[in-house]
Each structure stands twice: as C-alpha cells, then as structure tokens.
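User: Run a structure prediction on this.
Assistant: Running it now.
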Amino acid sequence: MRDSSKDSPRDAPRDGAIDEALDRAARSRHDVPPEMLGRIAESIGPRMARVRPLPATWVLTSGLILIGAAVALAGAARAGFYGIEKMSLWERALIFPALGLLAWIAAAEFVSEMIPGSRRRLAPGAVLGIGSLALLGLFAMLFRDYQTDHFWSAGIVCLAIGLLHAIPTGLVGWWMLRRGFAVNSVAAGLVAGTFAGLAGVAMLELHCPNFQALHVLVWHTAVVPASGAVGALLAWALRRRAEAL
C-alpha cells in the first residue's frame, strides 16, 4: 500500500499558485467595445420616456367602483328596475351596501395586483371565497320563498345576464389599470373577474324580481365564481400566448 505521507512536494496541491491565478483573473479587465455600447444605447434610447406615476390606490379603487356601478345601473335602466322596486326597505338597506363593500374589497385587491410591491391583504382565492360566501349568507337570511318555479330556465337567463354585464366591467377596469403590471397575471385575472362578477350581481339585484330563495342563492351568486374563473382563464391564455411569441 502506498504511504501518502511519502508523496513528493511536487505532488502536493499548489494552493499559493491557484490563489495567485484567481487573483490575476479577478483583476483582469473585461472591457466592452465602445461601438457595442453605442449600439445598445441607440437601440434603447428611442424607447425611453418619462412615465407618469399612477394615481393613489384609493383613486384607482374608486374609479373601478364607479365603472361597476355605471355598468350595473345602465343595464338595469335598459332592462327595468323591477328587482329594487319589489324589495322592502330592509332588503335594500342590506343588499346594496353589502355589495358595495364586497366590490370595494375586490377592487382594492385588483389594484394591488396591478401594482408590483403593493401590500396584499387577501389572497385572490380568499377574495372570491369571501364574496361568494357573504352573498350566500345574506341571501339565505333575506329570502325565504323556497318554491322552484322555472328554476333552470329562469336561472340560466339570470346567470347569462350577470356575466354579460361582468364582461364589460372587467374589460374597462383592466383598461383603466393598463399602465400597471401584474406580476401574477392569473391571480390578477381572478380578482378582476370577482370584482366584475359583483357588478353583475348588482345589476341582477336591481333588475330581477324573482325572489325565490334557491334562484337567488344559486344563480345570482354563481355569477361571482363564474366571472372569477373566466378572468383567471383569460389571463392564463394571454400569458401563454405571450410566452409562445
């Protein structure tokens, strides 16, 4: 067996030489040719422009709320305010402030998703869950008529109407925040869809006079998760398309 202690000095690692070589490599200059730097500056220069700062978060959130309210009111004005006319004062006092509060929460989170580094108080899934569960609890408390006349036919119509009003709300809201940047586009799409869905529900509450409990619980509330899913899927598809280009 070979005794390693008898190795010659030439076989031992030359630590000093290795350190010296590394020091020389670190001190050596790696200059970039000036003409290359010039070409880079020329290609970037025309694209550089001053960017206006985004308005305050509360301003953007208020703008989203105004968009949602305008879409809901315009839709109800066109179709008729039959729902709110049939409601009692107590029902109006609970439903519309609750919708406004939920819409404000969703709009604020939407703004946060579009501004990198913003503080996020709720996860996107929590925004969707809180909005849906709060509506279920509110509607279950207020509506006690458990008849199911025309459950499917009337329900699908209301679901379609709610989504049709959620779509422009989400698109206009996204356009308003177009100068922002969504780090997680799918999460932003989910929150945007949730906010837009609440605008669709507001339109249904203004218009729909069908107060059967199961109709309101199932079909009106379903607008929120359906709209949230559409927003997330649309954002995912756009991200995949951008990655493929």
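The chain has one domain: 57-244.
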